[in-house]
């Protein structure tokens, strides 16, 4: 019994917590049992959900919950400084961008750079034993957009670090998005929550839809067909290889959109709204239409914080602006090289 309790409250790097794991079902059940008693008390609700979110992140990434809090604190302070010291605002913004991109780059790209260096110069520099924190690609973009919006005078800094930490760490969207902006989420924290029967039913539909996409479609296709064909394509016919390519496209969509569905459903179950992240992308009739439907929170982030500041389609070299945006969008998707 004691060992089971210790296991429940400890981090297992070999079995990190996921939405479709039995332990998460237990955790969310416990959360929901006590939530009705706190939902109408704004500060108590925020503390309760923040504590749960940090524990959730601990179960997914271990000690890196401290990095999550540290990143939140750094950007909270820099946001205040950008707002209060306008003469030095650009410098504080640059510090924020360096912190966020530097943190993300260290965990995500360091070993790629070492591998590239070894390949070019024939050296044998050892790869670093870097553990990749779950969700870092998402929460660094959230904190970066926060300080940029304050610099642009589109947003006033939040007064409470508690509220800001909750915004950054809100568990439904923490590890797989959608990328949520402060202007969208922060006002929801102070609103009274009234969760209707319609909210509950639509939440359940979204959560079950996500679990079906992930467990029945994405994982089934990967294990029973895609992995076999991709491991030995010469053993299969051209048609079978082509089907595997299409199956992989379906697997990627179901895998990624499943987490968004579950996140939106869980948030709604708690009285919060998250933005739509996928809108039937394979129904798109053009590349632009596909871009507008796929990972919407990322594409709009890149548009507002990179493409338009570069000049968009109004000034400069439009194709260069597009190329830079797509390149950085591609780098954002790169998996860390362990």
Report on the architecture of this protein.
The chain has 14 helices and no strands. It has helices at residues 2-9, 22-34, 42-61, 65-84, 89-121, 136-151, 161-169, 171-174, 182-189, 197-231, 238-269, 287-293, 296-310, 318-333. It is globular and about 60 Å long. The two termini are 36 Å apart. By secondary structure, the chain is mainly α. The chain folds into three domains: 1-193, no CATH class; 202-270, no CATH class; 276-337, no CATH class.
Number of strands: 0
> Over the alpha carbons, how many angstroms does the gyration radius reach?
21 Å
Order of helices and strands: HHHHHHHHHHHHHH
User: What proportion of the residues is helical, as a percent range?
Assistant: 55-70%
Distance between the termini: 36 Å
Brief synopsis:
The protein is mainly α and 338 residues long. It has 14 helices and no strands.
Keyphrases for this structure?
single chain; 338 residues; 14 helices
Structural topology:
Layout: H1 2-9, H2 22-34, H3 42-61, H4 65-84, H5 89-121, H6 136-151, H7 161-169, H8 171-174, H9 182-189, H10 197-231, H11 238-269, H12 287-293, H13 296-310, H14 318-333
């Amino acid at each position: 019994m004691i060992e089971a309790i210790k296991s429940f409250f400890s981090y297992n790097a070999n079995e990190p917590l996921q939405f479709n794991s039995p332990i998460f079902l237990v955790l969310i059940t416990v959360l929901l049992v006590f939530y009705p008693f706190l939902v109408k008390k704004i500060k108590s609700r925020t503390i309760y959900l923040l504590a749960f979110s940090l524990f959730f992140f601990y179960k997914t990434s271990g000690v890196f919950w401290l990095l999550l809090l540290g990143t939140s604190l750094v950007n909270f302070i820099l946001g205040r400084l950008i707002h209060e010291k306008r003469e030095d605002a650009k410098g504080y913004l640059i510090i924020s961008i360096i912190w966020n991109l530097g943190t993300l780059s260290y965990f995500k790209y360091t070993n790629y750079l070492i591998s590239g260096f070894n390949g070019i110069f024939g050296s044998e520099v050892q790869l670093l034993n870097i553990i990749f924190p779950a969700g870092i690609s998402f929460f660094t973009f959230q904190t970066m957009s926060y300080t940029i919006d304050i610099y642009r005078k589109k947003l006033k800094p939040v007064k409470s670090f508690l509220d800001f930490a909750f915004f950054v760490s809100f568990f439904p969207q923490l590890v797989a998005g959608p990328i949520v902006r402060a202007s969208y989420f922060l006002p929801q924290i102070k609103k009274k929550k009234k969760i209707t029967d319609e909210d509950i039913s639509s939440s359940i539909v979204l959560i079950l839809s996500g679990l079906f996409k992930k467990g029945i479609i994405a994982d089934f296709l990967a294990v029973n067909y895609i992995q076999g064909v991709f491991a030995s394509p010469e053993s299969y016919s051209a048609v079978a290889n082509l089907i595997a390519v299409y199956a992989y496209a379906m697997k990627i969509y179901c895998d990624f959109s499943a987490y968004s569905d579950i996140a939106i459903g869980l948030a709604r179950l708690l009285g919060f709204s998250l933005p739509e992240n996928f809108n039937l992308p394979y129904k798109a009739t053009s590349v632009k239409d596909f871009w507008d439907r796929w990972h919407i929170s990322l594409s709009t982030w890149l548009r507002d914080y990179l493409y338009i500041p570069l000049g968009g389609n109004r000034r400069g070299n439009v194709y260069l602006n597009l190329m830079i945006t797509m390149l950085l969008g591609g780098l954002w998707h790169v998996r860390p090289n362990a």
